[in-house]
Design brief:
The protein has 133 residues and is mainly α. The chain is 74% helix and 0% strand. It is globular.
């Protein structure tokens, strides 16, 4: 059910994508929700695939509001050791790894700037602790 609601956000208007991402963010912020998403690699991969499509759409059509929620979702996923390792290996969008997404962050949006920095720091710290899904 989670992936179905996310897929509807993968295509369409910015508002639809933002609402779908906020729903995912709320699920992930709950410890049970994070555990549910990360329970199987297939479920986790489905969610990160939709998030990747959100990032791709942000490159084409920048939206600070959507970016904020996408970054927060990725940041929360790094709270799970297996998810963090998978993101670090192959599933983190390059735009978030290399900082090119930073140009989309508004000057006064300190929260998103801080979350991107935390995300990059979390990923750089996970290189020492390999985990398997």
């Amino acid at each position: 059910a989670v992936v179905f609601s996310l897929c509807s956000g993968g295509f369409g208007k910015e508002l639809n994508k933002t609402v779908a991402t906020i729903i995912l963010q709320k699920i992930l912020l709950d410890d049970h929700g994070l555990a549910y998403i990360c329970y199987t690699y297939e479920r986790f991969k489905s969610v990160t695939s939709v998030l990747q499509s959100m990032v791709d759409s942000l490159v084409r059509e920048p939206s600070g509001r959507l970016l904020k929620h996408v970054v927060r979702c990725y940041l929360r996923l790094t709270d799970n050791p297996r998810a963090k390792e998978a993101l670090n290996r192959t599933l983190m969008p390059e735009q978030l790894k290399d900082g090119s997404i930073n140009k989309m962050i508004k000057q006064d949006d300190n929260s998103t700037k801080r979350w991107v920095q935390m995300l990059q720091r979390n990923l750089s710290n996970s290189k020492n602790t390999p985990q398997q899904f």
